[in-house]
Specification:
Blueprint lengths: L5 H10 L2 H6 L8 H4 L2 E3 L3 E8 L4 E10 L5 E8 L4 E4 L3 E3 L4 E9 L4 E13 L2 E14 L2 E4 L3 E6 L6 E9 L4 E8 L5 E9 L5 E9 L6 E13 L2 E14 L2 E3 L4 E7 L4 E10 L7 E6 L4 E4 L8 E9 L7 E11 L6 E11 L3
Parallel strand pairs: 2-9, 11-17, 19-25
Antiparallel strand pairs: 1-3, 3-7, 4-6, 4-8, 5-7, 8-9, 10-12, 12-15, 13-16, 14-15, 16-17, 18-20, 20-23, 21-24, 22-23, 24-25
């Protein structure tokens, strides 16, 4: 073979080797070093001490692309529904930056620790980064006590009084007013000041007069707070029993669950005077249509019998029964009594 033909054979071999040519066209994925060239300004976003609120809080985090490739931000997912990252799919050129908006809804008191996973794409290679979100969520106000228990005899010389406090930690919050859902019970602000840590302190008083009806009581104190353009009500339950000159066989009438229709249901009550002194019932009224109270009004006796009658024909749909039997007597101070009636009606449909 001639020596000059050897280089020609080499060139021909190169031309006939398609794999050699394709290897030159393979996609080169980003390396881990290039991934590390994606800089997130803050890996931990700390909102610090904040107050519980229905409003959203925001922080922005810069995202810097220091690689030589185009970075695409695909999506973000938080470990809790209260923490989200607001992003739109974006493309960040080399040596450029983008913004990720962290949004937090602090509607629970807690030391909040959550994470956000940001998903990226760089020339077909997917990877993610994690941003940790922290906050110490505190109550904007506190009310004490959390419940008011009333156990009181109207024959006592002094009316029932109970004191409480509202501590307002957030200076943006205002206590607009306090009210009571139980007729005859009053509540009012006593005095205002500032406690040791600078929070506003408002003292309040609930007062039960001797003229109020005896019996079991259920209701709420309503505290109305305002912040910016919104208002929020906080309820403090009032529970207990007010004693007097009368004694009833049932402090609460529980009728249970019954069906609506033409049937009727009866419930018996006895009312006596504690000292055996005869009295008469002046009025017996129920603040609900479909339930009537039958008794001998005007009769003078130390014991009275009352029959409650629930008439199913007045009820067609399912509903909760929550009303009161109110009794007025001729005892000293026009002694009155209130007996709660509870139950549930199952409708015809």
């Amino acid at each position: 073979m001639n020596t000059w033909s050897k280089p020609c054979l080499f060139v021909l071999a190169l031309f006939l080797c398609p794999g050699c040519k394709e290897r030159g066209k393979q996609v080169q994925y980003p390396s881990e070093i290039e991934e590390r060239s994606i800089i997130i300004e803050k890996n931990v976003v700390d909102f610090g001490d904040i107050f519980k609120s229905d409003h959203y809080l925001h922080q922005k985090v810069r995202l810097i692309n220091k690689s030589h490739r185009i970075l695409r931000v695909i999506s973000a997912k938080g470990s809790c529904g209260c923490t989200i990252a607001k992003i739109e799919p974006m493309k960040i050129e080399p040596a450029q930056e983008g913004i990720i908006k962290i949004i937090l809804k602090a509607d629970n008191e807690s030391k909040l620790k959550h994470s956000l996973v940001i998903n990226f794409d760089m020339d077909g290679r997917r990877f993610y980064r994690t941003i940790h979100v922290k906050a110490n969520v505190k109550s904007p106000f506190t009310i004490t006590p959390k419940m008011i228990k009333v156990d009181w005899n109207k024959d006592m010389e002094k009316p029932f009084r109970k004191k409480g406090n509202v501590i307002i930690n957030n200076k943006e919050v205002l206590l607009k007013h306090i009210s009571c859902s139980i007729s005859g019970i009053s509540v009012y602000k006593d005095n205002e000041g500032v406690n040791n840590n600078g929070a506003e302190r408002i003292s309040w008083v609930i007062e039960v007069p001797k003229e109020i009806s005896g019996g079991a009581i259920e209701g709420n104190l309503r505290f109305t707070f305002s912040e910016e353009d919104s208002e929020k009500d906080v309820l403090i339950p009032i529970r207990g029993f007010i004693d007097g000159q009368l004694k009833v066989s049932k402090s609460i009438v529980n009728i249970g669950v019954i069906k609506a229709g033409n049937s009727s249901h009866t419930y018996d009550l006895s009312i006596i005077s504690k000292d055996g002194k005869p009295f008469k019932i002046v009025e017996a009224d129920i603040n609900s249509e479909g339930i009537i109270a039958e008794t001998q009004l005007g009769n003078i006796n130390s014991r009275h019998h009352i029959v409650l009658q629930l008439q199913g024909k007045y009820f067609s749909s399912s509903s909760k029964i929550d009303c009161h039997l109110r009794i007025t007597t001729d005892l000293s101070g026009a002694e009155r009594w209130s007996i709660p009636i509870r139950g549930y009606i199952i409708g015809l449909n």
